[in-house]
Design goal:
The protein has 269 residues and is of the alpha/beta class. The chain is built from eleven helices and seven strands. The longest helix has 21 residues. The radius of gyration is 18 Å and the shape is globular. The protein starts with a helix and ends with a strand.
């Protein structure tokens, strides 16, 4: 098990990685697939909009809330939305390059600021008593879930909630692809997609108020795109697959584990 001290050292390398964006060929190719092809599929079928609308619902009325936007780099799709509405907003990231860009975007919002610091460091980031921690694509960057959970609980107030969105490594096709990719991966030290054990640990540590899985049946949309049928028909099928993933994954572990991504609303016990 990787210790907190070891994770802090890993995070120094992670900071450099995101500051410079230096990737080897294989990592760059995987990034293009994730941020290109898969992003296009999510947009085309309406997944991204549905996730963001759900997150807005989970965030609720922010006027009296202190919110931590964890691992936000220069700001994710909801960073400014949250910052404009929250009583207090802090965007936190390892990368000072990303945070400089975020602070430029936040310059007209007096109740908001970005901080370049390590979430696990007592000295770098002493802020606490957050009502909401918004962690989009971040939780899976921590190799030791026990260390992370302990830190999250230190930072949340008594009734605090966490909103997450992370990749899953629980279906055979995804496990296979990732196992072939991982030996060549530049960012392997801080990329730990959720396993069954990860989900179980989070479920035991927090009350899962709601969860949704994405790219279960819908991950095969890439193959569907190769078939000689109209684009409208492909999108129609893709939307049906997505809605099936979205609905069934909320209650069925089998359907959830077939997905590539998971978003959750969790409340501190």
């Amino acid at each position: 098990m990787i210790s907190k001290e070891e994770t802090l050292e890993i995070n120094k390398r992670q900071k450099e990685f995101y500051n410079t964006k230096k990737r080897n060929f294989v990592t760059s190719l995987w990034s293009k697939i994730r941020h290109g092809l898969l992003a296009d599929i999510r947009k085309e079928i309406g997944m991204s909009d549905q996730v963001y609308e759900l997150h807005k619902k989970w965030l609720g009325d922010l006027s009296d809330k202190k919110v931590l936007d964890l691992g936000c780099f220069a700001g994710n799709s909801l960073s400014i939305y949250i910052a404009e509405r929250a009583k207090e907003y802090i965007g936190l990231d390892l990368s000072d390059v990303g945070i400089d860009r975020l602070n430029n975007r936040l310059k007209d919002i007096s109740s908001a600021k970005g901080i370049a610091a390590d979430f696990l460091s007592e000295t770098e980031f002493p802020d606490k008593d957050f009502d909401i921690i918004y962690a989009y694509g971040v939780i899976h960057h921590f190799p030791n879930m026990d260390v992370l959970i302990n830190r999250l609980n230190q930072k949340l107030n008594e009734n605090g909630v966490i909103i997450t969105y992370d990749p899953l490594e629980t279906s055979f096709p995804v496990k296979l692809v990732r196992s072939l990719y991982r030996p060549f991966q530049s960012d392997a030290d801080w990329e730990w997609p959720f396993t069954k054990a990860t989900i179980k640990k989070l479920s035991n540590s927090y009350k899962i108020i709601e969860r949704r899985g994405l790219l279960g049946k819908t991950k095969w949309f890439m193959i569907l795109n190769l078939l000689p049928i109209s684009k409208d028909k492909k999108v129609e099928i893709g939307k049906k697959w997505h809605q099936s993933d979205w609905n069934l994954s909320s209650t069925s572990d089998k359907d959830l584990l077939a997905c590539m991504h998971l978003t959750m609303l969790m409340k501190k016990n």
